[in-house]
């Protein structure tokens, strides 16, 4: 049995998978926001509860925001900032009494979709999370590629490609720079764009609903979002040239962003044609937690 845990900013989810991917159990609890010790305790409580219910122990994989630092084995680059600088993997292994595999949540999404999702069988898969933040993960032959510094796939903290005058210098990002892709393509980034156009504050899903009702400002905001998304993905294609790009996260459920998106990516990519597949995550918001469980079936990470 494989246990996967998705440690999110607002919720922690656990899933238990059998060898064939059958879901044996799942549960969600709120994340103890700003409470590191409480977060570790909540994860351990979920593991103990599921194992007691099923009557057996399992391997444990964790999908986290951010990545493990190679220098100190502490978490870095997390937008759940209470986790940064903390030895989360070591603390969980000590508390659970077993080894834990841990990867960035976008890596887990990409692995999930490459193993038994929308990109099943594809040699090279780039997984994208479009949500409160913007993440990316790279999987090659069902192996997570983390890179020398464990930041492979972090396209959200590159600058927006080919910026227009009204996009410079860009909004400040929590990483300390300005104009990062994340500041444009995250849910808060879309909301900020709508505010700039109307003076009104709407969440991303409300902007999508307004667009569907014919709101011109919402349509303009989503058109700008789609163009920026295409530019960002074209830069990934130029470097990685994946077989499949999988979109996940809450904003991947907005139907309007798919209309003509691949043609826009092709317009910006450095190629005379584009055979890349661009698909929505088959497992939706469960891709991260399933990928965490599948960390114990991947050939390797590195």
Description:
The chain has 302 residues and is of the alpha/beta class. The chain has two domains: 107 residues, Nucleotidyltransferase, domain 5 (2-Layer Sandwich), CATH 3.30.420.40; 167 residues, ATPase, nucleotide binding domain (Nucleotidyltransferase, domain 5), CATH 3.30.420. 35% of the residues lie in helices and 21% in strands. The chain has nine helices and twelve strands. A five-stranded mixed sheet has the order 3-2-1-4-7. Strands 10-9-8-11-12 form a five-stranded mixed sheet. The chain has a two-stranded antiparallel ribbon with strand order 5-6. Strand 11, helix 8 and strand 12 form a beta-alpha-beta unit. Helix 1 runs parallel beside helix 2 and helix 7 crosses helix 8. The chain is globular.
What structural class results from the helix and strand content?
A: alpha/beta
In order across it, which strands form the biggest sheet? 3-2-1-4-7
The Rg value, from CA coordinates, equals: 19 Å
Which regions are unreliable across 5 or more consecutive residues at pLDDT < 50?
none
Strand content: 15-25%
Which topology of the largest domain does CATH recognise? Answer: Nucleotidyltransferase, domain 5
Q: Any idea of the CATH class of the largest domain?
A: Alpha Beta
CATH architecture of the largest domain: 2-Layer Sandwich
Mean pLDDT: 93
Relative helix content: 25-40%
What's the total count of β strands?
12
Instruction: Give the CA-CA distance, first to last residue.
Output: 24 Å
The number of distinct helices, counting runs of at least 4 residues, comes to 9
Structural shape: globular
Q: How is the biggest beta sheet arranged?
A: 5 strands, mixed
CATH superfamily of the largest domain: ATPase, nucleotide binding domain
How many structural domains can be distinguished in the coordinates?
Answer: 2
The ordered string of helix (H) and strand (E) elements is EEEHEEEHEHEEEHHHHEHEH
């Amino acid at each position: 049995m494989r246990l996967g845990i998705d440690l999110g900013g607002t919720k922690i989810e656990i899933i238990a998978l059998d060898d064939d991917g059958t879901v044996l159990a799942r549960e969600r609890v709120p994340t103890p926001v700003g409470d590191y010790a409480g977060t570790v305790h909540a994860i351990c409580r979920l593991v103990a509860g599921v194992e007691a219910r099923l009557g057996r122990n399992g391997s444990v994989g964790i999908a986290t925001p951010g990545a493990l630092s190679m220098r100190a084995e502490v978490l870095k680059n997390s937008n759940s900032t209470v986790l940064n600088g903390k030895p989360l993997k070591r603390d969980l292994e000590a508390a659970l009494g077993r080894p834990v595999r841990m990867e960035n949540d976008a890596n887990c999404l990409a692995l999930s979709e490459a193993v038994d999702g929308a990109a099943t069988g594809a040699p090279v898969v780039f997984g994208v999370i479009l949500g409160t933040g913007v993440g990316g993960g790279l999987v090659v032959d069902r192996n997570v590629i983390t890179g020398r510094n464990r930041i492979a796939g972090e396209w959200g903290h590159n600058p927006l490609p080919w910026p227009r005058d009204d996009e410079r210098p860009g909004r400040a990002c929590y990483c300390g720079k300005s104009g990062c892709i994340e500041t444009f393509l995250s849910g808060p980034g879309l909301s900020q764009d709508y505010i700039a156009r109307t003076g009104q504050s709407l969440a991303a899903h409300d902007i999508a609903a307004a667009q569907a009702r014919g709101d011109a400002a919402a349509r303009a905001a989503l058109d700008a979002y789609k163009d920026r998304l295409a530019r960002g993905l074209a830069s990934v294609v130029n470097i990685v040239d994946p077989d499949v790009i999988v979109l996940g996260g809450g904003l991947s459920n907005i139907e309007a962003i798919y209309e003509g998106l691949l043609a826009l990516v092709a317009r910006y990519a450095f190629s005379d044609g584009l055979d890349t597949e661009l698909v929505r995550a088959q497992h939706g918001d469960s891709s991260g937690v399933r990928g965490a469980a599948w960390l114990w079936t991947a050939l390797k990470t590195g």
